[in-house]
Design brief:
By secondary structure, the protein is an alpha/beta fold.
Length: 698
């Protein structure tokens, strides 16, 4: 992977459910653009945003030599079930693995529980005669006649993509590789995903579902990226296109097309990298990234300047917030909680007079009612407009002209139903309070599950809608400090430009520390490092590659593993004691006790290779001076008091570092607005971030 030696200009593109954000960076100066996402052909919105950014910055297409892209396309395809016609070829007797799962119930007391339907229907799950043992021994050779019969069925069914997932193929992949060769020979236009490449780890349920999901979205992602690259080149942007990964690294388009499942959380991952960078600049060791866009809100814990990570992620949950109700994907991800609470989230009133908000969104088409694009249902954005928090020309830099009268009308129509009887302002108040409580509760639960207390954290707010709601959310969480960084409205796209080029390789190999023999481990780790380096080659001058190795260990007989860091060198027999000590320290921190007399076993290994991340200097302090008087005043509805108040309006561009002011106020910028409640003081930091501090009221 070769990067430009001296980037003249760089582009970051984030395609969301409602808006497509584009950031152009040249020598540290940034230009941002928001355009509505074109769902029928996302590349059209991307090209429109790129052209607007280039024109605004006065940059020629051939001056751009780095483009990085993140998208929710794979996630949406899985949630909406709009992927390819996918088949699963698997070991005879295991075709129902993806339907049986772990046989657990995510809600054991719900007699009407509905489990997530598999991505591949049963008639397209075809058994193949073969069998490999857990140690890699071939118990039953591949029956090629069985495989060829299955391929004939695939042709008859017009299958577009095939997942090949055999039992224990992570140890011995030869049967999967042979089936792929047969598929390529007889069905050359069909894309093939092998579980031994997509997710080469034990636990067949997660490995099978991850491979099926990869196959399900592969034609869609490959087609989209091909069209996008062609459109970019046709406009003179001939540099290489890179993709953001859910793990927080970036990779080439070629790797993204082969393993599109790794793009599932690419947009939110960019936001977490953005928040991490802000936390490092401000010296905030304990932070919570709060990313609220037009479709969803994402919350991520950042401790010791590092976002939490995980190796398994659930998508398309059939029951909101219920772990186990979705499709498990075994991929490296930045761990976060995501809820359907964004600016475009739709509000409704049920027959019992209860108000519900989300998770469905009005998106960009038809959009909220105030967009005047045909939307007829009330959304969070409509509520914010009715409550005076968004001005008619304060959305997407004025590119989206808002119509407050339409928001007022839809709020009055839905809120005045006989079961509720609210006027427009009362209904808008209820919607905003419900959304703020939902987001606060999600953050609270996520923190408790992670053993954290949020009151000693700092909230870092970004995304188009987050600065509008962050003050109230902070109050609910008992958080006293909030940072709204520059570029908050396009934070995820800016995060793309801060991410390292990196790639993680995972493998399963069973090892016990008692009788530790490092020869096989060293060979495995060396091969994994070579594979990762092939994806992430040496970067530009002055940038070297870093390598991190991790083992996933547990006490013998336990069901779940915890990660322990490995030294990046050849392991020796004496390192058994090093690994044991690292495991015990991590286990004690997580569970508060150790188990005597039980051996430790390691089941999985990962190697991550990436370019180094440039250091971030701690931000300088500035002397605060009172800001000038507000340019004007606006009546806004204060959610905390439940009453209308007057707020001063300030343009963010006119608040230099060192400025200070007190709420109530609204700070307006191109891509968002920050609502400052009456209980907050604001200081503009040296990096121009808005730092909100809650006053202590005696």
């Amino acid at each position: 992977m070769n990067l430009p030696q001296a980037a003249k200009a760089r582009l970051a593109i984030d395609v969301g459910g409602t808006f497509t954000d584009v950031v152009l960076d040249r020598n540290g100066q940034q230009w941002t653009t928001k355009v509505l996402t074109t769902h029928d052909a996302p590349e059209k919105g991307v090209i429109g945003g790129v052209e607007a950014a280039l024109n605004g910055a006065g940059v020629r297409p051939d001056d751009v030599d780095f483009i990085i892209h993140g998208t929710t396309l794979a996630t949406n395809a899985l949630i909406e079930r709009k992927g390819a016609r996918t088949a699963l070829l698997t070991t005879e007797g295991f075709r129902d693995t993806i339907e049986l799962g772990t046989e657990s119930r995510f809600d054991q007391y719900d007699v009407n529980l509905v489990k997530q339907a598999p991505l591949v229907p049963r008639n397209w799950r075809i058994p193949i005669v073969e069998r490999v043992a857990a140690d890699g021994e071939i118990l039953c050779p591949l029956d090629e006649t069985s495989a060829l019969d299955a391929i004939s069925r695939l042709r008859t069914e017009s299958i577009e993509s095939v997942a090949v997932a055999f039992l224990h193929s992570y140890v011995q992949p030869v049967h999967e590789q042979r089936v792929r060769a047969l598929l390529h020979d007889r069905l050359p236009d069909v894309l093939v995903s092998l579980s031994s490449e997509v997710s080469p780890e034990m636990r067949e349920y997660e490995r099978f579902t991850t491979t099926c999901a990869n196959a399900y979205v592969q034609p869609l992602i490959a087609g989209y990226l091909t069209r996008l690259e062609n459109d970019l080149k046709a406009r003179g942007l001939s540099c290489q296109l890179f993709l953001m990964l859910s793990s927080g690294g970036i990779t080439t388009g070629e790797t993204a097309c082969a393993f599109p499942i790794r793009l599932v959380e690419s947009g939110p991952a960019g936001g977490a990298i953005f928040a991490q960078n802000v936390a490092r600049r401000h010296g905030v060791a304990r932070a919570v990234s709060f990313d609220m866009g037009s479709t969803t809100a994402k919350i991520c814990l950042i401790d010791d300047f590092k976002p939490q990570t995980s190796r398994i992620f659930e998508v398309s949950r059939s029951s909101r917030f219920q772990k186990g109700s979705g499709i498990p994907l075994r991929i490296p991800v930045i761990e976060m909680v995501e809820i359907g609470a964004g600016g475009g989230s739709i509000a409704r009133v049920d027959r019992l007079g209860r108000i519900a908000v989300g998770p469905d969104s009005a998106g960009s088409t038809p959009g909220p009612a105030c967009y005047a694009r045909g939307g007829l249902e009330p959304t969070v954005t409509d509520a914010d407009v009715v409550l005076g928090r968004i001005g008619p020309k304060a959305l997407a830099g004025g590119q989206v002209l808002l119509h407050p009268e339409l928001a007022q009308a839809v709020m009055a129509r839905v809120g005045s139903t006989p079961t509720l009887g609210f006027d427009a302002e009362e209904f808008a108040y209820a919607i905003v309070e419900l959304v703020d409580e939902a987001m606060s509760n999600a953050a609270r639960v996520h923190a408790v599950e992670s053993g954290r207390t949020l009151s000693n954290h700092t909230l870092i707010a970004f995304g188009g809608a987050a600065p509008l709601h962050i003050g109230r959310v902070a109050n609910k969480l008992g958080v006293a400090r909030v940072i709204v960084p520059v570029g908050a409205g396009v934070g995820s796209a800016i995060g793309f430009l801060l991410a390292p080029i990196s790639y993680e390789v995972a493998r399963s190999m069973y090892v016990r520390l008692q009788g530790f023999r490092p020869e096989r481990i060293n060979a495995l780790l060396s091969a994994m490092a070579d594979e990762a380096r092939r994806v992430v080659r040496q970067g530009p001058e002055g940038r070297c590659l870093t390598e991190h190795r991790t083992a996933f260990a547990r006490y013998v007989g336990q069901g779940y593993e915890i990660p322990i860091a490995l030294p990046v060198r050849t392991l020796l027999e004496a390192d058994a004691a090093v690994l044991r000590n690292a495991f015990e320290q991590s286990y004690l921190q997580q569970y508060g006790r150790l188990i005597d007399g039980v051996d430790i076993e390691i089941l999985a290994w990962t190697v991550t290779v990436g370019t180094d991340v440039p250091g971030v200097e701690l931000m300088a302090t500035v002397n605060n001076q009172p800001a000038s008087q507000p340019s004007s005043w606006r009546d806004i509805f204060d959610i905390g008091q439940g009453a209308w108040i007057k707020a001063g309006l300030y343009a963010r561009s006119e608040l230099p570092p060192g400025s200070s002011l007190s709420g109530p106020a609204i700070i307006i910028e191109e891509s968002t607005s920050t609502v400052i409640g009456p209980g907050y003081d604001v200081a503009i930091a040296a990096d121009a971030s808005i730092v909100m501090t809650r006053r202590v009221i005696p």
